[in-house]
């Protein structure tokens, strides 16, 4: 049956404000939490810094009608129980919590029903179909397309261009090995819908295997199992050291030319290169790219992000997708809150 959509928040019937209010002295608090001490710590840091720098710039420019934006962060170490506890603490301290930003699929999935129940908008980098569309959800929105859509899009691309990309000794059919982390994020590409779509495309999933969420993970067994199963395409729903571990081991085994290697949007990032044994190992990696990049220097948004990055003297390793997307996210939040104030008035924000 279709997912039940939560009842929308009632919009006050008062007349909209006559003009921009003066909110000088007011504070609008945004909450965010993610992993700064667990396996994703190095990956989360640029996201947080992007949010912090963008909020500081917004405040320096006068905030939202004079109201200052305050960011409150908590480290959940990729522990779901800890994330739930942080959510309870934040909402207990602020009875009118407007918005939270989350960074992981596990947190987004676990808290999606709570966000809906409490009518709190969740903007997330965890692009989980379950978090967006699962039962009881409805208040979770992402910074990119969900992982099943990404998997389907890339497989459709490969089917249509197989003659160009297929390994030299591969047959006419795509045989997929899904090698990924055993986490909500890692398994996020495989749903009933994406499996059905792959079948419709004629893509056979011949192997599913996992490897450790660690920079030192050994993916040899998963790769050899994929080879035995006859796979000619590998999909990994990982990032940074996740794709790097596969590419390093494929090259060490002398098997790189037997597989097309593809991954989610986060896989195509500078963070991956930090963990490659040789930068050349990244050549040929295929991933969806649903946003502009730092090299799009003529774009005003990219110019703005670059200016923030330089002004705050961030490390070169943070010049990646996470920082860029959180600058974008704060811009989107600012526009959404401004629109809400213009529509119902600051005093009616919930």
From TrEMBL:
Q: Does the keyword Signal apply?
A: yes
Q: Where is the composition biased (Low complexity)?
A: 1-11
**Alphabetical keyword list:** Signal
Give all residue intervals belonging to the Leucine-binding protein domain: 33-340
Location of region: Disordered: 1-23
* Gene3D superfamilies assigned to the protein according to its UniProt record, in alphabetical order: 3.40.50.2300
Signal among keywords:
yes
Q: Which PANTHER family match?
A: BLR6548 PROTEIN
Name of this chain's protein? Leucine-binding protein domain-containing protein
Species for this entry: marine sediment metagenome
